[in-house]
């Protein structure tokens, strides 16, 4: 779960980065966008004016052509019988030439109007594209804000569950340490405990100061022969030794290992010949069995769901003897002469 929370934290940071960049871009372009909207309005007015001018120009062209056509029709079939007819013919020729000249001029004006209209349309398209980009940024920002709010709510729930688990683990550790001290299995020196300062919320600070202080645990190495594992088919989900909490980035020391059985209701077996010194249910730890072996070695089995009915404190048992059963998880811890050793150094891996 810690890795999942860490992943969400990174996702949140990335969202904040994107949102900051979008806000800066929106702020930077806001005034420019307003100015461009005004320019766009003016361009649209210009385009409307040009379209009206072109319509008026087209009407003038039509009128000139119609006038020329009517004069030509009027003169068709007439004989040049009088001087007035000749004058009329000359007048028509002059009018026709004027019409052609006017048509050429009007055609040039129409080309210029069309060119201006195309230029204005291109400008409108460019400005509209810029404005659309600005609006897209605004929509994207709102979408990111909505996603971030959902992510924050999800993370708040995750943090609450995670902190509860840390508190539970710390209480389990405290209860087990109290038992081991009572049985003179360990002697803890807490004078060198180090509290790690947190830059988190007050609730997280309280939880982590309780659950994640790093202790200088007395440890030693085991170089003797390997023995059997307490479970037949398992996976190590928590290793022995220091590790970094993925959520709060704190150094934590795990005195035990946690094994998860790959089959439910699995048998838990004694790993070495020895004498049972404790076999009871302990608050927060379910059922616990502690066995004393030669060379000052003691093995601690916690989180058992059932203890075998034959198990009694004080009895001697052999390696492989069934201690009980677990549904899934087993805590396994080993000490040698009041110092912790890595349980994986003692057992042969499956």
TrEMBL record:
Q: Which SUPFAM superfamilies match?
A: Duplicated hybrid motif (SSF51261)
The record's InterPro entries line, in alphabetical order, gives: Cell_wall_metabolism_enzyme, Dup_hybrid_motif, M23ase_b-sheet_dom
The segment(s) forming the M23ase beta-sheet core domain are 264-343
Asked if the keyword Transcription belongs to this entry, the reply reads no
Keywords annotated in UniProt: Coiled coil, Signal
Q: Which GO terms describe its molecular function?
A: metalloendopeptidase activity
Mind telling me which residue stretches traverse the membrane in this protein? none
Superkingdom of origin organism? Bacteria
Q: Which residues form a coiled coil?
A: 5-60, 159-196
Entry protein name: Peptidase M23 family protein
């Amino acid at each position: 779960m810690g890795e999942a929370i860490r992943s969400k934290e990174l996702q949140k940071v990335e969202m904040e980065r994107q949102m900051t960049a979008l806000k800066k871009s929106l702020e930077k372009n806001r005034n420019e966008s307003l100015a461009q909207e005004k320019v766009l309005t003016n361009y649209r007015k210009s385009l409307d004016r040009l379209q009206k001018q072109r319509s008026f120009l087209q009407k003038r062209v039509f009128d000139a052509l119609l006038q020329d056509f009517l004069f030509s029709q009027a003169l068709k079939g007439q004989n040049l019988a009088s001087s007035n007819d000749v004058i009329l013919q000359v007048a028509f020729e002059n009018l026709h030439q004027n019409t052609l000249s006017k048509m050429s001029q009007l055609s040039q004006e129409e080309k210029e109007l069309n060119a201006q209209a195309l230029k204005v349309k291109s400008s409108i398209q460019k400005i509209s594209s810029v404005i659309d980009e600005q609006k897209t940024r605004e929509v994207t920002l709102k979408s990111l804000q909505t996603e971030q709010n959902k992510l924050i709510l999800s993370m708040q729930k995750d943090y609450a569950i995670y902190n509860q688990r840390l508190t539970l683990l710390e209480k389990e550790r405290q209860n087990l340490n109290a038992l081991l001290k009572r049985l003179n299995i360990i002697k803890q020196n807490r004078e060198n405990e180090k509290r790690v300062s947190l830059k988190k919320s007050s609730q997280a600070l309280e939880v982590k100061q309780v659950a994640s202080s790093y202790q200088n645990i007395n440890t030693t190495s085991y170089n003797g022969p390997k023995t059997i594992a307490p479970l037949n088919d398992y996976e190590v989900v928590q290793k022995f030794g220091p590790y970094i909490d993925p959520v709060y980035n704190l150094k934590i020391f795990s005195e035990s290992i946690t094994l998860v059985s790959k089959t439910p209701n699995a048998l838990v077996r004694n790993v070495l010949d020895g004498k049972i010194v404790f076999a009871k249910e302990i608050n927060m730890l379910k059922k616990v069995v502690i066995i004393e072996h030669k060379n000052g070695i003691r093995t601690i089995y916690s989180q058992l769901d059932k203890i075998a009915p034959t198990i009694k404190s004080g009895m001697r048992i052999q390696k492989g003897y069934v201690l009980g059963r677990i549904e899934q998880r087993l805590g396994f811890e080993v000490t040698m002469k009041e110092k912790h050793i890595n349980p994986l150094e003692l057992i042969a891996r499956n």
